[in-house]
Design a protein that fits this description.
146 residues; mainly alpha
Length: 146
């Protein structure tokens, strides 16, 4: 083995990174299960209350940021180690995402009855009728050129 290769393999920082990556891979798999549980819970809450739970929404955003941090560290895109080697990503310490409409989710019928900002009533879009076999033009074979 060459001295250069031996020197590269004996660096403790690369082996420490490998241990960190193994720990983070395990954390990533656990976080996937937690995300699935949050998704199911949020669906059920929204189904019955017509509005998602704010605390679980915030937790979901933080968990998504955490998964992003894991991926960027494991792909060597950053040297910053995510939780448990650094603080948990918390939405409170970052600029919050702006929610466009803080009202409960509504049905399509209720959404179509909303009035635009200019005050005029919105007209529902009409769909073009589907062509049936009776209304379609018959296909003509392409002309042969010689």
């Amino acid at each position: 083995m060459s001295a250069n290769l031996r020197q590269k393999l004996s660096r403790p920082s690369i082996w420490l990174r490998l241990v960190s990556m193994i720990v983070l891979a395990i954390a990533f798999n656990i976080a996937e299960i937690v995300i699935f549980a949050v998704v199911v819970f949020q669906f059920l809450v929204t189904l019955f209350t017509r509005k998602p739970n704010a605390q679980f929404t915030r937790f979901g955003r933080n968990l998504a940021r955490y998964l992003q941090q894991i991926i960027t560290f494991m792909t060597f895109a950053t040297e910053e180690r995510p939780f448990p080697f650094s603080p948990w990503p918390d939405e409170l310490h970052e600029e919050p995402l702006v929610v466009e409409n803080d009202k409960p989710m509504s049905s399509k019928a209720e959404q179509s009855e909303t009035v635009p900002e200019n005050g005029e009533a919105a007209m529902p879009k009409k769909r073009a009728p589907r062509k049936t076999a009776a209304t379609r033009k018959p296909r003509t074979p392409p002309k042969k050129t010689t």
